[in-house]
Amino acid sequence: MPFTPYAYQRAFLESYAAPRRIVVKARQIGFSQIFALEALYAAIHEPETTILLVSRSQDLAVNLLRYCYLTHANLRHAPALSKENESEMGLVNGSRIKSIPANRSTGRGFAARRVYLDEFAYADYADHIYQSIVPTLSQGGSLVIGSTPNGIGNLFHSLYMAGDGFERQSVPWHACPAYYTDHERAAGVPYDQAAWYIQERPAFPAQAWAAEYECDFSGSGAAVFNAADLDRAEQGAWGDREMEAGHLYVNVADIGRRNDPTVINTIDMTAEPFQRVAHERIERAPYPIIQQRLEARARAYPGMNVVESNGIGDPVIENTDARIEPFITSAKSKVNAIQALQLLLEHGRFKAKWTAQERRELIGYQWDDKALVQDCVMSLAIGAIAITQMGTPGL
Fold first, then answer.
1. Cα separation, 34 vs 336, whole angstroms
2. Is-contact 105 132, C-beta < 8 A?
3. Could you give the 3-state DSSP secondary structure of residue 253?
4. 225 found inside a domain
5. Is the pLDDT of residue 394 over 70?
6. Sheet holding 325-328: strands in order across?
């Protein structure tokens, strides 16, 4: 079946001759495939052309070149392959397409006539790559940059907003008929009432939605938690409260490393909105003391006990008399937990009277949190993911 591009894809392809193009786009609307298809077209119709595809990871780089191979295999009169591996496709007409991941030396010493930088806002060493790539195009050639947004102030944002020498294109989710159908559009259904939006939007925190689907630079920025959501969470919050018969609780602990504090929260998850009913931040206590505090909390609020399993937390889990469910920390599980907390706060499903330390941590929290104090945030996030995975009893 011949490929029929959507209108926004066609608009991009029609600007093929432009020397500089930059696209801010929603996730999963086919632009990576379009980059690959255009690269293959150039390789076929411009003999002796070297084309560079740059992705943010090795897996994505391999997948991008895979689109080229699959398309080439279905063409009748394309030049035969002279080279075929995971990182490079060569044609007998002298053209080649090289697909590589982003790293500090990407593009250095590599003379290309066409360069495609995919998901560039998330690429490691974006500034180094751009500085390496631009000189290779000094004698002419084409540069295409595409990405979903990743906040403001990074190179992708700066290049798009400045626009100097670039043809710009913005493609939010509702430009794609797969999400906002032609039938809905023709019937005058507002895109925020489209069936796909109604089904999918509640599953995304506002920040993730802005980045993934709305092409919103400011909404996809570094700050993770909204001050208005934190204020709303305090409205109707119970504060500290003793155990009540028939209620179900989850006790959550983030165990401090070295000089870091340990934070223990207790959440009443009997009904929504969930209520934080006990909070303790333990400064630099030896592990036997932390174990005693966990055991006391488990006795005071019977229910589920969850402790971060982060190396430091494992001995505490093993030596505590209370029954503990470990939260195994990985890059993915941490993101899932933070996003679970985002969703509970954004939807008004969680109540707490914040301490000054909690508010500071939540307001200042960013995804790149290596230099941040985050003990309170992680304890709350682990509680949020525990609640999300267990569901709401009684509903």
1. 30
2. yes
3. strand
4. no
5. no
6. 325-328, 303-309, 249-254, 262-268, 274-282, 350-351
Question: Which structure tokens are listed for 13?
Answer: 């392809």
Q: Which one-letter amino acid corresponds to residue 34?
A: I
- Give the residue ranges of DSSP H helices in the chain: 7-14, 31-45, 58-73, 126-136, 155-162, 182-186, 195-200, 206-209, 227-234, 287-300, 313-319, 331-346, 356-364, 375-390
Averaged confidence pLDDT in the chain: 89
Q: What is the CATH number of the domain that holds 304?
A: 3.30.420.240
> Per-residue pLDDT for 315 more than 90?
no
Helix (H) or strand (E) holding 350: strand 350-351
Same domain, 162 and 18: yes
Say what the pTM is.
0.71
Clarify whether residues 152 and 253 are in a common domain.
no
* Total structural domains within the chain: 2
Distance between CA 26 and CA 10 in Å, rounded? 16
Structure tokens at 174: 């509702």
Q: At what angle do helices 31-45 and 58-73 cross, to 10 degrees?
A: 60
For residue 159, give its domain range. 7-185
24 neighbors 148 (Cβ within 8 angstroms) = yes
Query: Is 132 inside a domain boundary?
Result: yes
